[in-house]
Structures are given as C-alpha cells and as structure tokens.
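JOB MANIFEST
job_type = single_chain_structure
chain_count = 1
residues = 268
[input]
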Amino acid sequence: MTEPAPKFPTSLGTSDADHIGLLGRDVARDLMGQVGFGELAFWLVALRRPTPSEVRVFEAVLVALADHGFTPTAIAARLTYLSAPDSLQGALAAGLLGGGSRFLGVTEDSGMYLHAALTGHSSQLPTSDAGWDALALDAVRATRAEGRYVPGLGHPVHKEEDPRTPVLIKIATDEGLRGPHLRLFEAIGRVHDQVLGRRLPLNGAGVCGAALADLGLPVELLRGFALLARAAGLLGQLAEERRRPIGMDVYRTVDGNSTYVAPDHDQQ
C-alpha cells in the first residue's frame, strides 16, 4: 500500500501556474499597490491585518532602527563588500549577523524583560504612575540583585536623552497604543536611579521593544523586526559604499596602525 504524501501546512505563501497567494489573498489582485511593506511584514508575523494605528507605530519603529551611521554592523557590511563585491548578499548578511546584545538585539532584550516583569500582573495592572513606579522598582531591584543590566537603559552617544524615545511614546499615545510594556518602561526611566545610583536615558532600541510588545507581537521575534529595519539601512550603506567608498581607507587605517605585541606567556 502506498504511503500518502506528507502534508506541509502553511498560512503564508502558495502559488500555482496562474496565481500567487499570500495570507489567503491574491498577491497581484489584492495586495500589490494596496498594502504597504510595513503593514505586510506585521501581517506575515501576526497573521492578522494591523489597524492603521498599529501600522503607524510599527513603521515608526522601523524608521527608528534603520540606520545609525558607521556602527559595527555597517562597517562589517562595507568591509565585506570591499572584500567580495560580487556578493551583495554576503555583505548584507555580514551586517545583519552583527545584530546582538549591544547593537539591535536590545530591542528584543527589552521586550522580553518587560514581558517577564509583567507576567503574573496581567489581571491586576497598576492604574496610576505610583503603581507603575512600584512595579518598576521591584523589577530593577531584582535585576540588580542578580548582577544583570536592565536592557534599554543608557546609550553610548545620547547621554541625556535618546531623541527617539519621547517621539515613539507620543506616537503610541496618540494612537491609543501606549500599553503596559511602554508604561513599565517609562516607570523604569523614572525610578532606576534609586537603585543604580545614577540616571541613564531610556534608549531608542528599548522603547522600540516596548512598543512592539504592546502591539502584541511575539517578544521572542522582536530582534527580527530590528533586523528587518536594519536591512534597509545596510542596503543604503552599501549603495553609498559604491558611490563614495570608505572600506579601503578603514582597512588601511587599521592595518597601518597595527602594532605587534609579544604574547604574554603567563596567559597562554
């Protein structure tokens, strides 16, 4: 008896000789020219079409994370393109692979941190700033006691305020989407100095993670949205590398200033 062919279910894309389907719609008839890319990206993950308000917050996040100049991810992409100009995909991949706990990954780290702190409080969330501050203090104290950092606090350039943070909070507020993750993140900004002994700004990557979590997107996938945004920025970096290349200068500067240091045999 012949075994039945295995089934591989999907709610995403399908195609036949005459049609391409995506999310149960016809790509050519129902989506092209009618759905923006940010809206589609949200839809693909959430499997529901976002509201216009959700699209505005989501796309504000993508814009906030797209490009920050000569970051390690951008430099990695440019130097890879210098080494292998025949492999644009390799240069893009090199930049994206650099998205981690220091750059880009903070978006996911913050979302997961806030989500964990809210676990167990969903049925009795605070109703006042004082209540949110108390919850934030508990979270920061527990994190400090564990010897960990609070993700979303501090920035290497913006020492007083990250200009993206208040703008994204305002957009979410205007659209009625300032939910518990953002409220807790704001409270952490108000109270963390009571535990850490110094005041740090709430950074843009952190507020983006809070906003995405408030949209109901899976916190385990938030880094993917940061990478989606940065892919556009990296493509721009590579386009600029073609117009005004700096990769060779970066390489020669590092190579020309390298200094040999004899191995410390005590550390071998």
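[summary]
Residues 12-50 form one domain.
The beta strands are 13-15, 20-22, 25-26.
exit_status = 0
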